[in-house]
Amino acid sequence: xxxxxGLLLLHVLLCLVNGVYSGRTSSYVRTEFPSTDIPLESxxxxxxxxxxxxxxxxxxxxxxxxxxxxxxWVTVAEPGPNEVFYGKNxxxxxxxxxxxxxxxxxxxxxxGYIHHCLVNxxxxxxxxxxxxxxxxxxxxxxxxxxxxxxxxxSYTFGIIGDLGQTFNSLSTLQHYEKSGGKTVLYVGDLSYAxxxxxNDGVRWDxxxxxxxxxxxxxxxxxxxxxxxIEYRPDLGEISTFKPYLHRYKTPYLASKSSSPxxxxxxxxxxxxxxxxxxxxxxxxxxxxTWLKTELKHVDRxxxxxxxxxxxxxxxxxxxxxxxxxxxxxxxxxxWFVKYKVDLVFAGHVHAYERSxxxxxxxxxxxxxxxxxxxxxxxxxxITVGDGGNQEGLASRFNDPQPDYSAFREASYGHSILxxxxxxxxxxxxxxxxxxxxxxxxxxxxxxxxxxxxTRRRLKxxxxxxxxxxxxxxxx
Length: 475
Ligand SMILES: [Fe+2]
Hints:
Layout: H1 2-18, E1 24-25, E2 55-61, E3 69-75, E4 83-87, E5 95-98, E6 100-102, E7 105-106, E8 109-110, E9 113-119, E10 127-132, E11 139-144, E12 155-160, H2 167-177, E13 183-186, H3 202-215, E14 220-221, H4 242-247, E15 263-267, E16 270-274, H5 286-297, E17 305-309, H6 326-338, E18 343-346, E19 352-355, E20 358-359, E21 373-374, E22 380-384, E23 405-409, E24 413-419, E25 424-431, E26 438-446, H7 450-457, H8 459-472
Parallel strand pairs: 1-23, 12-13, 13-14, 16-17, 17-18, 18-22
Antiparallel strand pairs: 2-3, 3-9, 4-5, 4-10, 6-9, 7-8, 10-11, 12-24, 15-16, 19-22, 19-23, 20-21, 24-25, 25-26
The chain binds fe (ii) ion.
């Protein structure tokens, strides 16, 4: 650690001497794998043994406060049993929850039987074991519930986006598994099945089997991307998000949302708001109305960390998808500043980028105010669309790097956010880097709500802490 601290201080000193306070574009671009999907017959997509064995198992948070999970799985030959057996001791399942089953068709594809089962009334901070399926085909997994809602509850989230099903996707998953993340905040674009002829649903199934190694054991908080829209009127498929909505449930009713596409969930010390870039969000629409109300419900005394997920980034200096998030920025940015959102995570752009705290809420088409400015009340915007899908990396950034962009790099990876207490969080972005676990962007975030409260109470201390944050934010 000593040499790292030395390097950091040297870099800070050089920046100060040169009067430089600007972002960095990493020249690192590397991947050892081609951007092609793993063949269907690969072992990574292996179908579990046994007649009608449950496959594609995944869990997500099932309520507002983290005392429930939704367990989902697919059976192929017949619906089979619908129950989840669970308990606190391995192989002793003294409790049972009853689920539902559904299926769908998409052009000439017919899905398996998709099961969803709400398991609620769980205790906090507890490991549960669960079993699904029957007889020799039954399968067993486990998950851990989060700590109770508390402003100082420590918790570690992973952030993954645009994953797909290439060997780069697998590499991202394998690296994430070593990161100690307890829950994934997923920023959209899941299987990329829509890249296949007739949006072949077989690739939804293979993706579900690929990610089961993580999704069966910890919740993934889902948000939808453009690859989930699957609007194909030429095939007679005019119901948007059809496979996604059948396969991936969200606890939207618990946050009084009218749609599974946008919702919120509280977990440990975080209040997570999920938005839909591809559902109506302008003034008076249901998503706009819901968000306006939900932001008023956020209680930073209980959940200090306010995190927003969306697919299309509001701030992006990559040539890929440039300005696509501008319409949502125009609709919501002023609220993010007003409510002091800590972090906004997005995907869509297949590269990594982190902003400084900036806003452009004074933008006006008549006044000439058109540049983002430093704003201590603004969120940090982070794009993590670098999961590894078949479309490859977005390696062309706008040049020069705009002032608001702190760090950007076009390589595959994932992020880790460690909430330590009500005031501090440690954040890393980890590039896959040929099999090694390499944190390439490291920042200490100060909570946007409690930092300012601390400022009022401890002015002297505040100066020191804020200075540290400014220094750290340069990396
Ligand atoms: Fe996308």
